[in-house]
Every structure is written in structure tokens, then in C-alpha cells.
Specification:
The protein is globular and about 50 Å long. The protein has one domain: Sandwich (Jelly Rolls). A hairpin with a 2-residue loop joins strand 18 and strand 19. Helix content is about 5%, strand content about 50%. The chain contains 3 helices and 20 strands.
């Protein structure tokens, strides 16, 4: 395995990237495909209707003859009122589902705003020893649960995902961490509003690892200093033109303080020069004075 340092993007570039998302479909159809170093790599997107339905999902499939190697998502139109429930890869498609947030101690909540989900799947020609590994936590009551899916020893991590069972707007995925240096795994962690007046029904979280015999993968997981704020973005760039970006993970810490919850809202891919950039975006439901961290984990793959 070859490891190269990934460079953080910040300041003006970070702000510019936020304006590029709207043109993603055009970029994915041209320059990203031309620069791909994973055979046949292409990015395809699909969206739900724009409405205020409590739960919705969208599935986007890979072309015949290709396999899912990663993906991205966006919850658009109701930031802070919608929580990611499903980010589930299979060999042939990616499912992204989300629901409106329910206030602790109630059976209601959500938002009157219209919103939608956009799912973007990364597809590639079949890679050697391609396999998808799933791991699910215990199903029961609790404030936090975690699951780890590990790749077989003859493979490396290419992409992954996470999902919730029975969260019902009370549970959020605060961590989807990718590791390729030692554990070669995907860790999914979720938290609920369990406790007095909170969510006390059983639930679970699942982790998904997409694995294959690729030459090398790189992830970056260094935390930056915590700071106060309503919204945060964290961007990283793959280390050279020989790398392809397959997915973006995240860590939100702390996920909740006092009356404030923090949720992942989208992960994106863009091109900076000739190198792919992965960004995670998150939002707090209410302002408070507690510093918090959003960290993006990107997976870059090469077949040199």
C-alpha cells in the first residue's frame, strides 16, 4: 500500500466549492470521467420529488456491467429539520433515505418546508475480489450504538455506507468513518435522544464496506480545532491525478449539547484543477456556545 498526504482545503476555496454543487451533474458527465484512474469510473445522480413528506428515499443504479464503488448524497431544502436514515450501497445501486426530525418526547415534529434527496452513485468496471461486507449493531434501547464492517485481508476498502433501523426521526448517524491504514474498515456510529422524555424504543445501526483488490487507498482523518457555528464544511483533496475519489465519510463531535443537535446534510465531490475534492457539510439545529468539530474522511483509490 502506498500512502500519500492529503491536503486540506480551506478559506476561499472552501466557500467556492459550495457554489459548485449545482453544476455537479455536468462535471460528472465530462471531466470527472475522463480523469478517472479506476476502470470505467462514472458518477450518476437521481433525486426525489420536492415536497414535505415525512420520509422519502431515492435509489440510483449503476449501468449493466459495472459495480457500486461508493457514493454521495444531499438533503436539500430543510437544513436542520431532516436527518439521514439510509446510505446503503449494494453491488448494483445506492439507496439514500431521510426523514423529518421528531422533537424529543413527542410523536410529532418535522417541517413544513419542501425538501428533496439527491443520491450520487460511483460506479466502476468490476474490480478483482469485489465484495460488500455488512455489520449491524445489537437491536435495543440506548443512547448510542456502533457497527464496524471490515474488509477481507486480500482486499482494500473502496467505499461504504450506513443505515438506521427504527430511528423514526429520533436517531442520527453522527459518524461514518473510513479507515484504510490498519483496520481497513467502515465504522458507523449513531446517537439518539434517549433519556427522560426522549426516544426509548429499540433501534440499531449498520455499517457497509465495499472492498476490492485495488492497488492503494488513502483516507484522511485528522481533526481540526473545534469552533462555534451553525454550519460547517470540511474539504479534502486526493493527493494527485492518479487517484479517484469514491466517497466521503464524516465525524460530528459532539453530536448534541443541551438543546442543540447537529446533523450531516450532504457529502459532495468536485474537481480542483485536476484533482478530486471531497467535502462533508453539517448543520446545528440551534445556535449555542459549544465548540464542535465536523471532520471529512475521503477515500481515494488508484489502480496503478
Amino acid at each position: 500500500m502506498t500512502t500519500k498526504r492529503v491536503v486540506r482545503l480551506s478559506g476561499r476555496l472552501g466557500r467556492i466549492l459550495g457554489t459548485v454543487v449545482a453544476t455537479f451533474a455536468l462535471v460528472a458527465g465530462s471531466s470527472l470521467v475522463a480523469q478517472a484512474k479506476v476502470p470505467g469510473l462514472i458518477y450518476l445522480s437521481a433525486s426525489t420529488m420536492v415536497d414535505s413528506i415525512v420520509y422519502k428515499s431515492v435509489r440510483v443504479a449503476c449501468p449493466v456491467g459495472t459495480r457500486v464503488v461508493g457514493g454521495f448524497f444531499a438533503l436539500e431544502g430543510a437544513d436542520g429539520a431532516v436527518v439521514l436514515d439510509d446510505f446503503i450501497p449494494s453491488a448494483t445501486d445506492l439507496l439514500v433515505g431521510a426523514g423529518e426530525i421528531v422533537e424529543p418526547g413527542t410523536g410529532n415534529g418535522g417541517t413544513e418546508f419542501s425538501w428533496k434527496i439527491t443520491a450520487t452513485v460511483a460506479c466502476a468496471s468490476t474490480l478483482a475480489n469485489y465484495v460488500l461486507i455488512t455489520s449491524t449493531s445489537a437491536f435495543g434501547q440506548g443512547a448510542a450504538r456502533a457497527a464496524t464492517a471490515r474488509c477481507p485481508s486480500e482486499t482494500r476498502l473502496v467505499g461504504g455506507g450506513a443505515s438506521l433501523s427504527n430511528g423514526w426521526g429520533h436517531v442520527s448517524i453522527d459518524r461514518l468513518n473510513y479507515t484504510t491504514s490498519t483496520a481497513n474498515s467502515v465504522n458507523a456510529h449513531a446517537v439518539s435522544d434517549a433519556g427522560p422524555g426522549g426516544f426509548n424504543e429499540p433501534w440499531s445501526v449498520s455499517a457497509y464496506a465495499i472492498c476490492a483488490s485495488v492497488t492503494s487507498t488513502v483516507d484522511f482523518n485528522t481533526d481540526k480545532s473545534p469552533s462555534v457555528g451553525i454550519t460547517k464544511s470540511d474539504a479534502w483533496i486526493c493527493p494527485g491525478t492518479v487517484w479517484s475519489l469514491t466517497t466521503v465519510g464524516w465525524l460530528i463531535n459532539p453530536a448534541a449539547t443541551n438543546s442543540t443537535d447537529r446533523y450531516i446534510t450532504r457529502t459532495t465531490i468536485d474537481i480542483f484543477g485536476t484533482q478530486p475534492v471531497g467535502t462533508a457539510h453539517a448543520i446545528a439545529t440551534r445556535p449555542d456556545d459549544t465548540p464542535w468539530i465536523l471532520r471529512a474522511d475521503i477515500v481515494c483509490v488508484t489502480q496503478m
